[in-house]
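pipeline/complex-builder :: batch 7 item 3
reading input block
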Amino acid sequence: MDPALDRGEGLSSKRFWDWFIFPGGIWIALLFAIPLFLVLALSFGHVDDFGRGVYGFSMDNYKDVFDSTYVPVLVRSVGYALATVILCLLVGYPVAYFIARFGGKYRYVLLAALVIPFFVNYLVRTYAWVALLADQGLVNNLLVDWGLTQEPIQMINTPFAVIGGLVYGYIIFMILPLYGSIERMDPSVVEAGKDLYGSPLQTFLHVTLPATQAGILAGCVLVFLPAVGDFVSAQLLGGPDTYMVGNLIQDQFFAASNWPFGSALTVVMMLFLAVWMVFYLRRASKGEAEVL
Amino acid sequence: MAEEAIRIESVTKRFGDFVAVDDVDISIAQGEFFSLLGPSGCGKTTTLRMLAGFEVPTEGRILLEGDPVENVPPHRRNVNMVFQSYALFEHLDVENNIAFGLKRKKVAKDEIKSRVTEALELVDLSAKSGARPNELSGGQRQRVALARALVNRPRVLLLDEPLGALDLKLRRQMQIELKEIQREVGITFVYVTHDQEEALSMSDRIAVMSDGRVAQCGPPEEIYEHPTEEFVAGFIGISNLLQGRVESGNRVRIGDDCLEVPDLGDGHGEGETVQIAVRPEKVAVDEVGGEPYRVEPDMFTVEGEIESKVYLGVGNQLTLKLGDGSRLVALEQATYRMKADEQWEVGQRVTIGWHPEHCMILS
């Protein structure tokens, strides 16, 4: 066959397949891009006398975001998210390491055992924690029954409960990329570390950790991003003192009915997270980070 | 023998029910290039890993320069290993890969620097000191792995099929270089390979392993020319195996013919069946009825026909069928003496001969 014809046919069939971008493209435009644009537009507006959002061109909402009333909430959100990341890493790394290196033929069973609870809605799982940690909850009842304490210990409405809920909610996003990178690591690299006079601890610090840094980075980003914006854990397990930016945004839309301010909060948070996302994607494109 | 670097004493290693290494005794001299040769699963790598400290023997002792080390963890043993996969640290550049062991041993900074430079020169990689492992070719990675181990000046260097991942040409080149490096540094090398040619060309001594035990241990010439059992004869090069029956003295009957072998070895009584092996390159083939050209008068001869012929460039590999149905392989090297128009035909009747002293009696 004539090569030019051949090319022509290839081109037209490629064009044919190109049309398949439209259904998904329209879906994303309608349900993602346009609402996002509306949020952005509304963030420059204000509230009228009836409490409805009105579009405008003012920066007032952004000034309010960095008002001394709200800055502690932003700082707290980042702090809780960082604590969550660190706890997830400390708990998740040994788990992922054990499954990847010693799970043998059971490793997929073990992974499934970790993943299956996450099929249950996050809200429902967090309610389970309320049942555990409440003053009349399972843990306190047991402590009182066993005489370990006279009065129930205040567990709910504390930062620990909120961070605990976040860790429970997002740890799987830490474990899975860690598992991936540990499993892919050549075990003889660890042996080489020991062979070259590294004690078990030195070998872990100088060989295993660097060899799995891609998974660590991916896990940290994947936990940090949703944890910063989370509102379920603080709402169910926390109180006014543990409010996070997600709760603040939710309040603006549902309780306070200040949609423009809520939009400004949303935009600020998205920009903050986008910085991390860009950092992560750049590392990932250089092949240094895990891409899920 | 020179001073002993390693002694493996009645070492057995079991993984559950599986016996990986079965009552092995090996003694390796200081400065020796010693190879563990065998097919996969023969226990050679497990033996090496016990020397490195990654596996602990189930039974027996391992002595490193006279000191028992079988329970010393790898990071406290003065041996280093070159891994089959090289196991380079991808997050470190070449220089830091090589310096890794010295840093863990807390060697002074200046000395680390000079020894790393020296090691880089030894493996001819000075220009690549700042490169990351993933920027290097397979051969260069191999050299980094070698330098990373040698820079520590171990008492013994362990090499686990270090050339297995390289292509044939590079492998040949590295074989020569490795041997030169070993001569230069004078360190005892224990080399694991399944490639018999590699073992023959590089080693001072070879231990051929099979099913967890040492089948034969000796210099390459001895292993090749005087294999003591069928496994060794078959694993090292190709061997023709013939059944013979001991008649009297050193006379062995093969089919209808009798053959006087120079040394039958001990313990073969009359009427006993023995295995006789002959190397293909020791077998001479001539046309029946033609003038004797390769087959010499003092050779043991049989008649047969050519069953198949493989042209190898440097010669021909002929498969010959004997009267009793058994087969022999002859490797005929092309030489300046070869007749230009000479061509073997399949089905041609031939006289087959070899010198009795080239018969290897297997136990």
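note: The interface with chain A takes residues 52-54, 73-76, 79-81, 83-85, 87-92, 100-101, 104-105, 148-149, 152 of chain B (CB under 8 Å).
queue -> next item
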